[in-house]
Predict the 3D structure of the following.
Amino acid sequence: MTIQHPGRRPTASASVSRHDVPSNRRRGGDIRTLLSPATVGAEAGFLGTLTLEPGEVVTEHWHPYSEEFLYCVRGEIELTADDEKQVLGADQAVHLPIGVRHRLVNDGTETAFLVFCLGPLAPRPELGHVDTEPLPQQQSAGSSR
């Protein structure tokens, strides 16, 4: 059975390549939001990728409106969720309920690559995240990175 909204005919969106989406490094790591209201008109949530190089951190934050599903494709990260640490390795996933503070660290020697999905959407994008620790400093122009 297919549920359809009145007056709307469901259609698939065009595919989105992560290489065509700009990187967001505001909280650390290379975060790319692939499927979202801005990219495909999504209404229920958004999906993206995170590339975390050795030594990189995604600073602690929480989502007041959304739960997060996080899947580690390759590599390994340390996840701290409400002060509890756990390792998330390749082919493992975790669910972060609404309101759970979380932070990601790559303490390993290889690049970690993760896929995330959040939903439902916050009423406005700026309400989607609450930062609870200082954001990472931008690398200087002379940095070796």
Residues 37-40 form the longest helix (4 residues).
